[in-house]
Amino acid sequence: MEAVVLTVEETAELLKVGRTTIYDLIKGGLPDSIMIGRLRRIRYTDVITYLKQTAARESKQ
């Protein structure tokens, strides 16, 4: 079973980018993230949705 929520580090590893890139994306609103106490988490499904939207946008160009 896939993790329901990912840390910023796990998300960065999944997307093969740095943590700073993930934080920049979060500041821009994509993907959605949630705070659990002081910890930021990103839903796995939101990462997949973000990837699909990005792929669709790039295929139109």
UniProtKB/TrEMBL annotation:
The domain of life for this entry's organism is Bacteria
GO molecular function ontology, one term from the record: DNA binding
Domain Helix-turn-helix stretches: 5-53
TM regions (residue ranges): none
Fetch the NCBIfam families from UniProt.
excise (TIGR01764)
Name of this protein:
Helix-turn-helix domain-containing protein
Which source organism?
Answer: Paractinoplanes rishiriensis
